[in-house]
Amino acid sequence: MCKLARVGKLVTIGVVVITTGCSMETPASTGPNPEFDQKGHAAGGHPETERFVDVFHETFAEGEFCAGFAVDLEGENRIVVQAFESHLVVRNNYKATWTNLATGFSFEDNGAWKDIIHFDGEGNEETITTIGSIFRIVIPGQGIVGQDTGIITFDAATGEILFEGGPHDFAHGVGPDFCTLLTGASS
Q1: Residues pairing with 81 in the sheet
Q2: 44 falls in which pLDDT band (50, 70, 90)?
Q3: Structure pTM?
Q4: Per-residue model confidence as pLDDT tens digits over 93-152
Q5: Distance CA 56, CA 95 (A)
């Protein structure tokens, strides 16, 4: 699972929530109107806000994610989506546990970050800026073994990195291999 997949899923969720006015059936849901009034935004008013929790649990059969053993992924992402006139802000508080089902060995992948999706004048995604700790993988007894943190901006159409500050190994494809980590060995 890579960071870009997380962003893509969240952008899709945010756009669906804002454009369709879906309610995520949580007490804090505001159920935005699909054609919400932007007058307050231009004058410094409050954005349309939607809060929800994405709870996930997936089991990958042996060979489906890692050769030689099955993997279990369980966690949740607490998400707050705020819609402004020219951009969306998606705040994430992500906590997940990856488990090697053959050995029972597991590690945590936690992060807290926000994605800012800027739109051009026609409503198309222009850039995505991520600020915070996207990946923070902790192995018991070893500490943090993988982390993407800081700020990074992508071109929404091409995925090209336009700016970055801080280590972003996963964004560059050189982060630790999840299957190696699940064997208990550091990568």
Answers
A1: 50, 90
A2: low
A3: 0.70
A4: 999 999 999 999 999 999 999 999 999 888 899 999 999 998 888 887 888 888 899 999
A5: 10
